[in-house]
Amino acid sequence: MSTNINDYIVKTEQKEWQPLVEKGIHYEGIFVQSLKFDPEKNRSTTILLKFEPGASYPYHNHPAGEELFILEGDAIIADAHLKKGDYLYTPPNFKHSVKSENGCLIFFMIPEEVEIL
To answer: Where does the ChrR-like cupin domain start and stop, copy by copy (predicted)?
Structure first.
C-alpha cells in the first residue's frame, strides 16, 4: 500500500464524464465518474453520477444496500423527492428507480453491483 496521499486523490475536474453503460445497456442522459475502483470486485464502488434533465435509471435492487448524497439538483427515488444536501442510505435488497426532472449530481457508495429488475 502506498503511503503517498496523492495516490488516493481523485481530481474530478480533471476527469472526463463517461456515458453510463452497464452490461451493454447505455442509459441515455446519465454520466459517471469513478472515484474508487475495487480491483478485487473489478468494478467501481464509489462514483459520481450526473443526470441530465429528464434522465432516469430503471427499477433495480441493491443486494448490499447503498449510500448516496445529492450534491446538486434533485432526484426522485422510490417516490421520495431528494434535494441538494439530502443523504439516503438504503438497506440491503432495497428496490427502487431514480429519475431527475431538472438534472442532478449524486455521490454514490455501492458495495455490490445493482441488479436491474
So the answer is: 7-108
Backbone angles phi, psi at 108, to 5 degrees: -120, 140
Range 25-45 average pLDDT: 96
Q: Determine if the pTM surpasses 0.85.
A: yes
Length of the chain (residues): 117
The superfamily (CATH) of domain 15-116 is Jelly Rolls (2.60.120.10)
The full set of domain ranges for the chain reads 15-116
Ordered DSSP codes for the chain: ----GGGG---GGGSPPEEEEETTEEEEEEEEEEEEEETTTTEEEEEEEEEPTT-EEEEEEETT-EEEEEEEEEEEETTEEEETT-EEEE-TTEEEEEE-SS-EEEEEE-SS--EE-
Tens of pLDDT, residue by residue over 48-93, are 999 999 999 999 999 999 999 999 999 999 999 999 999 999 999 9
pLDDT value at residue 1: 86
